[in-house]
Amino acid sequence: MSGKKKRKNNRIQKDPYEYGSFAFEEYNKGNRKYSRTERRRLLLKDKGTVVTPDNRRRLVGGFAFLLILLAALIVRMGYWQIVRADDLRTMAIQMQKVDTEIEPARGSIYDSQMTTLAESVTEYELYAYTLYLYKSDDISAEEKAKVLSNMVEITGLDEEKALEKLTVDENLALIAEGLTKEQVEKAEKLWGSNVMVKTKVSRYYPNGEFAAQILGGVNSDNVGRSGLELQYNSVLAGVKGRTVRTTDRDGNTVAGGSTKYYEAQDGYSIVTTIDSVIQNFAEEALKTGMKRTGAEAITCIVMNPKNSEVLAMATTPGYDPNKSNQPSDKKELAKFEKMTAEEQTEYLSRMWTIRGISNIYEPGSTFKLIAAASALESNSANGKSSYTCNGYIHVANYNLRCLGVHGKQTLKEAVGNSCNPALA
To answer: Percent of the chain at pLDDT above 70?
Structure first.
């Protein structure tokens, strides 16, 4: 009996606070009865924090959540660094690489005697920081007047236009374009950092409206738009070059970064068969004809009969290729300015066109040469044949009139007079 009691006394007693077991009876002594919640609170206060089954579940859940979150982060990093690595590398290179085009010099156009008809020139654009140069309240009226006076002198603008440019809302404003190097250098010397200069390569036609339709013109991107400029654009334009360099976010070249330079190939020049002397005579004859006849347009083509070279080609009304978006004649310009946008577009299209080679028209007097040649070939006429012109000839039910009364004439004279009765 004593042995059993001893073994019983030697048993390990279970801790009443282990795994959330509470000795609630300790808090029921006395007359006051404690609720279960109060007893638990008092117990925790006395014994410290106890790991209950609920706490254990919360800890396990939180740890599992952290593991899942960490696993998701690892998978996401692997996706960006492994799966998308090539794409990201390409995007980074594109962002860091700056590709700058280098414009080639457009080739020139010459006449048959190597006189320049069209060439590329470098023009300068003058910009000004108007706030610091003119608009600031700290600038006195006397200083503003001096700035305006100097601006008019340097740029050639009238005073009203120059004042308008200096008082625009933008701080950096375009003041004038098409300036020479000497003009912009004078402006930089006078105003320093308050002005900025940009260069621009543009097309220049030194003879104005001379042979305008033959030469044609270029657009704002220096690409041929009509005439020889369009027909031989691929020859004249050349090949653009480029500079490719690695930069930081501010556009500065990165130390140790790669820089590649591809040199531009300038365009080839072309030599035409145009004889400037004959071209000038043809254009003057057309102007006289326009005044005498009041025609809407006149076209003339002069060719070398031995090899079919075009020696001159002219059309009226003409225009200045340097200002190809408007007619050069004052009367025509006044009509042009009153037109609608659609009418102006149609007018410019006609103005740029060489009617003699682009328009469809009746052969008219040009066919008389074929009629005369056929008559000679078929022996219906010879050099001694004569014809009488009374000013008209009756054919079928029509009277074909002539420009004048030529009287008796040979076949050669009839062709020279472009006589309708003789060659009908």
So the answer is: 83
313 by Cβ neighbours in 10 Å (0-12 / 13-18 / 19+) ranks as buried
Its pTM surpasses 0.85: no
Band of pLDDT at residue 417, cut at 50, 70 and 90: confident
pLDDT digits (tens, 9 = 90+) for 184-237: 999 999 998 888 888 878 899 999 989 998 999 898 888 998 899 999 999 999
List, for residues 380-406, the tens digit of each pLDDT value: 888 888 888 888 888 888 888 888 888
pLDDT for 294 beyond 90? no
- The single-letter code of the amino acid at 144 is K
Q: Nearest CA to 330 among 349, 312, 347, 317?
A: 317
CB atoms within 10 A of CB 176: 21
